[in-house]
Design brief:
47% helix, alpha+beta, 5 strands
């Protein structure tokens, strides 16, 4: 897994996760169920759900090809994960690590019950993917920054604040 950094209580840097939609510091087991997210990503990768999501996302202006591109970008492709080279963490080519907020968003999209931030996530990931493709630059850090600069910041916590987000599963 890719290593990321955040400041801990003692002001030292500690590992986090570069997930594509956001940088997630690990938290307690009740808030960040890494095992569930890993399983959800495996399931998403093995499920042919592009047509289902495209049907639901069409009303927001997305085409089937764009949904396929987004799915590939988020769940399948390797990217240059380079957000922490300034802290001595080497860049690496790898898939994004699993993120429970993104997995939940994808499942809501599949079910046809998206939260408004799920649509923002689609726009964010499409822009990021297009940036990487159009510039030929595989840098996640640069593509993510360009996406944020374009006004496409995704708030992965919004559904949880409204009671529709990630719920710990056993």
């Amino acid at each position: 897994m890719a290593n990321a950094l955040r400041r801990g209580a003692d002001d030292a840097f500690v590992p986090g996760r570069q997930t594509g939609g956001e940088i997630r510091p690990p938290r307690n087991a009740d808030d960040f169920d890494e095992a569930w997210a890993d399983e959800a990503y495996d399931s998403i990768r093995s499920t042919d759900d592009v047509d289902d999501i495209a049907t639901h996302a069409a009303e927001y202006g997305f085409t089937r090809d764009e949904i396929a591109q987004i799915k590939s970008h988020v769940f399948e492709e390797e990217h240059l994960l380079d957000s922490y080279v300034d802290y001595g963490i080497p860049a690496e080519m790898a898939r994004f690590e699993s993120n429970p907020r993104m997995a939940e968003a994808w499942l809501r999209l599949r079910e046809g019950n998206p939260h408004p931030e799920d649509i923002t996530l689609l726009r964010h990931e499409l822009y990021e993917s297009n940036y990487m493709r159009d510039t030929g630059n595989p840098s996640y850090a640069e593509a993510h920054a360009a996406t944020i600069d374009a006004g496409l910041a995704w708030d992965g916590e919004a559904p949880s604040r409204e009671g529709t987000g990630f719920q710990r599963r056993r």
